[in-house]
Amino acid sequence: MPEPWGVLGIVCPETHPLLGFLSLVLPAVALGNTVVAIPSARTPLLATDLYQVFDTSDLPGGVVNIVSGGRVELTKTLAQHLEVAALWYFGSAKGSEMVEKESAGNLKATWVNYGKARDWLNPAQAQGEEFLRHATQIKNIWIPYGE
Known about the structure:
The chain is an alpha/beta fold. The chain is about 40% helix and about 20% strand. It is built from seven helices and seven strands.
């Protein structure tokens, strides 16, 4: 059965800051996760201005949390945090390596791009089942059969 991760950390890409933010955060929220998002460091106000939209919508408080600041330090903190169940990182190859290394200690699920560019304007790359699949984990339910 697919089940939400719970708390999902998302480090958004530097290119196409608003579209990248929305393409990553919305599928995660739609499938029942709470999100801690680090927006693009170049233009964080594009994402933080969305707080007004979230406040006036039916989205419960605390479902989307936007943290701006030093990208490397915040990413490392999310990777090491025990309450964050999964982490998505869209950035450099070095950053992807750091995320996987720092997440290994608490067996956090990661989805990184290893520095490969993604075309956020192409619907085939910026939306779809791939994002929904990574927003859930598969839980097995064992049903006893017979004696």
